[in-house]
Amino acid sequence: xAEINMVQAVxxxxxxxxxxxxxxxxxxxxVGINGGVFRATEGLYNRFxxxxxxxxxxxxxxxxxxxxxxxxxxxRPVSEIQFMGFIYPTIDxxxxxxxxxxxxxRGRLSCPMVxxxxxxxxxxxxxxxxxxxxxxxxxxxxxxVVIPSSPSRAYGLLLAxxxxxxxxxxxxxxxxxxxxxxxxxxDGIALPMDTGFVLREGDDVSLVTWGAMxxxxxxxxxxxxxxxxxxxxIDVSTLNPFDPEQVLASVExxxxxxxxxxxxxxxxxxxxxxxxxAEHGLMSLLAPVKRVTAPDTVVPLxxxxxxxxxxxxxxxxxxxxxxxxx
Amino acid sequence: xAEINMVQAVxxxxxxxxxxxxxxxxxxxxVGINGGVFRATEGLYNRFxxxxxxxxxxxxxxxxxxxxxxxxxxxRPVSEIQFMGFIYPTIDxxxxxxxxxxxxxRGRLSCPMVxxxxxxxxxxxxxxxxxxxxxxxxxxxxxxVVIPSSPSRAYGLLLAxxxxxxxxxxxxxxxxxxxxxxxxxxDGIALPMDTGFVLREGDDVSLVTWGAMxxxxxxxxxxxxxxxxxxxxIDVSTLNPFDPEQVLASVExxxxxxxxxxxxxxxxxxxxxxxxxAEHGLMSLLAPVKRVTAPDTVVPLxxxxxxxxxxxxxxxxxxxxxxxxx
Amino acid sequence: MVSREPELEIPFHRFIDEVGQVxxxxxxxxxxxxxxxxxxxxxxxxxxxxxxxxxxxxxxxLGTYASSLGQEAVGVGVAAAMRDxxxxxxxxxxxxxxxxxxxxxxxxxxxxxxxxxxxDFTKARSDFPICIPVGTxxxxxxxxxxxxxxxxxxxxxxxxAGDGATSKGDFYxxxxxxxxxxxxxxxVINNNQWAISVSRTKQTAARSLAQKSVAAGILGLQVDxxxxxxxxxxxxxxxxxxRHSCVATVVExxxxxxxDHTTADDASRYRSDEEVSKHWQxxxxxxxxxxMENNHAWSSADEEALQKQxxxxxxxxxxxxxxxxxxxxxxxxxxxxxxPPKSLANQRDxxxxxxxxxx
Amino acid sequence: MVSREPELEIPFHRFIDEVGQVxxxxxxxxxxxxxxxxxxxxxxxxxxxxxxxxxxxxxxxLGTYASSLGQEAVGVGVAAAMRDxxxxxxxxxxxxxxxxxxxxxxxxxxxxxxxxxxxDFTKARSDFPICIPVGTxxxxxxxxxxxxxxxxxxxxxxxxAGDGATSKGDFYxxxxxxxxxxxxxxxVINNNQWAISVSRTKQTAARSLAQKSVAAGILGLQVDxxxxxxxxxxxxxxxxxxRHSCVATVVExxxxxxxDHTTADDASRYRSDEEVSKHWQxxxxxxxxxxMENNHAWSSADEEALQKQxxxxxxxxxxxxxxxxxxxxxxxxxxxxxxPPKSLANQRDxxxxxxxxxx
Lengths: 326, 326, 359, 359
Ligand SMILES: Cc1ncc(C[n+]2csc(CCOP(=O)(O)OP(=O)(O)O)c2C)c(N)n1
Ligand SMILES: Cc1ncc(C[n+]2csc(CCOP(=O)(O)OP(=O)(O)O)c2C)c(N)n1
Ligand SMILES: [Mg+2]
Ligand SMILES: [Mg+2]
Known about the structure:
Chain A contains 12 helices and 12 strands. Chain A is α/β, with parallel strands linked by helices. Chain A folds into 2 domains: 6-176, Rossmann fold (3-Layer(aba) Sandwich), CATH 3.40.50.970; 197-324, Rossmann fold (3-Layer(aba) Sandwich), CATH 3.40.50.920. In chain A, the strands form 2 sheets. A 7-stranded mixed sheet of chain A has the order 2-1-3-4-6-5-10, with helices on both faces. In chain A, helix 1 runs parallel beside helix 7, helix 3 packs parallel to helix 4 (88-98) and helix 8 (213-226) crosses helix 12 (312-323). By secondary structure, chain C is α/β, with parallel strands linked by helices. Chain C has 14 helices and 8 strands. In chain C, 60% of the residues are buried. The structure holds thiamine diphosphate (2 copies) and magnesium ion (2 copies). Residues 162-164, 192, 194-195 of chain C line the site of one magnesium ion.
């Protein structure tokens, strides 16, 4: 089988889920005959028909609210929000209903739904098309927030998300959509949520990250390695519920931690990781924790986007700084 | 002048702002003749009239979006969202417009607006009436998030918020609404935003908190003091932009830090503070940082609310634990 | 130059007027007035339950409570029009409908008393729980309706919300998709003229709330919300249309909130006693009783017996509520996720221990 | 039993038909066809600008761009109806309106080229910048209108958005308050029949988008969006009503998107060539030219001169855009807050240094 990129892997997982489970429906703006603006739903309309691949009116709050109703009534809706910049109207439903229906009814009703959205920068898109606000959603108990960082993890995690009996927001780093094609087996095997992936082992410094910054971290690790610094890379992957143990184990080994995210610094999810280390990993630290993030401002339009986004250069710098402590 | 509670202080600041500046208007659900469900706008309708004290239709997204338009066109809207649990539909406008209008137009248009909302638990209210999701809003660059913890700070900070040329979300801890009346001078003097207040000095441990947890921290400090432990209490007050220096200075002095908030733990704003210390205050630490927060679940209905909310007991415990390190 | 709203006629349905007179040929189910006794009984139960619940709140044994005094015909009429497999999505003022659907008084009390177990209905297990954020249940109804249609179930979703809820974008977005996708939904607007202190006329310039349906290309009509026969009949017809032709309807039930918004409200701050007194003339319970009496289907003795029976039923439920054990602290974690993460177990332990320490 | 939508008549305005024939007495401003030359010129400028902008995108010198091909009469007609002190709140496809209002081509190119300075309009300084999140500008318009009314300014707010935008709750919430509060707003719906790949008929079951106004008790009407005279006249009347009687109007301009949604779209995936070809017959530029020619107000020589002039104007603007200096890295911090916190200065330094290091 040919190598596929992340959009194709998402497509493959959707097709598999639709095939396996008749209660799965896909909905969103332009997901039908157009196949989604990123083509993540390409071909599904022809294959599964208009009763399962549903073009909605232009209304994000509705997409989320309808998903709640569908899910409570026995379907497994997988909806697409066209860009994370348009996800805000869904927060009301995610916070007030999707994440609470099981708890509110003591398990009588539940909400097995997935909201997918491309997020993050790096493709020179217009305003509101490059944000990374995953931390806002990761603060909602009852909701899962999952972010893949490669085609195969997109495939396996999306299957896990769709099969999970509770709501999942699945954020796809659009910078990786067409990068790094790889072989992905359509084996229907889900990957675990609620924990991350140790993608590279190393003894000197832990790079803790997710989404498109995994790629930058690998680039940084390569550079660092030429300087004799071996980085461990952890793809956090599920932000909520966050698995502190995995990060703490790595930091215990390396004694140094750089947290990297595309989101702006203040209140980004990196802060949760930093605080976790300050609480439970302090004694392992050989150096302060560092965060490499976007600055606390609005994502600039395309001309300055690259200045705004963190990159391998900053990660290398941060890790090198930490090595100065011993 | 008699002592007043926090609701009355909010009322006093609103009246003062309306009196001083004809461009100030107050809007929201039931803010008119009813004076707001907590009576924060009591008497304003009669005093300033129906052209400035505006009962809106029941539509929170509209309240935020209209405020953006009003503010851009020269008014200073101060709106009330009845409970923070109904603030989510405003996030779209706060994120996409209020926080960006100045930046987007390079200063041509701006957005001097305030959204007030009671938040937090402790009054045995129905579902959605007790949340603390300040961290979601504090992650939006361009927005200020300000939380008072006493009648006089409510008065001074609300004046600052209304006079500020940029948008402010002003969250009022409803547990303190009718607690702790004090003398508040109606002197029209604003208090500084963008930094916090050192409310109690102490050398042994820093209690970093805001909102209703300030009260719990004082109770904890009193108990700790009887045991020979002197706590410093910092009311962070402005969550975004957050002033790291003030917290770091305190931790440098005490070497120990307990962060306390009513919000659920994961991704709460306490994580930003913990991470800041892990980055810049590590060398001052004599003990790990501790967070005392609500657990990562939905605020339970009234019967279990007190089990959910953090209190002085947990703060005392955390601080005492930290004293064991030396 | 156009200078007025387009003309448009919104039907208004009423069968029994304020003094119990029939103003239009009665629908089949009402021709034998004996058939109305269950409706009357349910309205009376709702009224007594509301009264007692307010009393419990006033004495510190219940949380904030929203009475439906004066609006009993809406909830009861709507629920009586539904079939079991239809799905109800209520607001916080639909105890009349919920009780008819099989939710128990004890469950309602548990809920308002601050215990989530109150929403784990023993009956009506597919119905939605009480919805607090105004208007957010409309889009759930569209989703439920889609699922029912997709699954080939011959049923519809019924969302009930107030006049204030019609100002929320959710209402419009949900109406719109029921039109575009032809979904079996009935939107019941329980128009009690007030959204806390904001009157119906300040809420919108639309002459009726039913006409908001025009925005979505679905049907809209008004019904006298104090005439339970009209409510039941109108909603039945709307449900038929929904089930058989997938045509959605907005049913605006015109009624009046005879008491405070909730126990936390003081309506005398914003509306006159005269206004309220006037509306007591139209209230639904006395109206139906009048009609039944006029038609020799009801006597003072019947009334007395019913009052007694209802009072004792309510009393029993209250006692069961008051006797119920407190929820366990750990329960706040047990239904958050079906598959909870490990980290939550630690937090659970902590809370449970702390609660135990507190006694 | 009601089984159909309430009857309702939505007016449709048109003065000049597809072949340039007058179908109704022309409004005052159009009786001398010479007066239409500026409108024609503006439509032509918009068309040429769009074409060149798409070309720039295709050659990597501009970001994603949304052409208004076929819709030029809407933007131009709307803006031509406005007075200076009225406030325009455009979507992302209203370059026709923005150019008329005094926004420069260079500014538009800067914006679409990824430079915020493009929204710091030299003229039209009270107008809103381009709004990307669909429909979110409707409530801004209500707020602006309230401020204008409050301040006693004799002006109105004009929000323009697409057919897709009418499905967002924001539209309804904003319409509703303009009715309830009597706010001077004109909501222009630029109905180009498509919201990316979702057709107008899949977007809503409402027979017209104008009728959505009924939900709010405001006025609604349709206009031939390819007839610039009708657009200008209809919006003028709506603006009069808004300014003088504070009555808001929804003007649905019926037109057609003759090209892709944006340069990132491929419309052939979801609509047929035949459909597009058919709509070329109705397009607004040729129609107006035909009318002016029929009335001896326009000649081939005029056309040739105009084409030349427009091409050179656009070329000059493009050159100015391409020659403009890059924005400074630090500028991303300089307009976030009027009173920035100290912590931001450190972050600014870091970014500026990093950018300088990169070259
Ligand atoms: C989204 C939202 N905003 C505000 C509130 C607070 N609130 C509770 S009930 C209510 C008024 C509701 O009026 P209406 O829809 O007419 O229903 P009624 O209470 O009259 O039955 C308000 C503002 C809420 N629950 N939800
Ligand atoms: C709230 C929101 N959702 C989704 C998008 C992505 N998007 C951009 S334009 C568009 C379609 C808009 O259709 P319409 O309102 O008819 O305007 P048109 O593009 O046809 O001018 C969509 C879905 C967006 N910009 N904003
Ligand atoms: Mg009401
Ligand atoms: Mg369109």
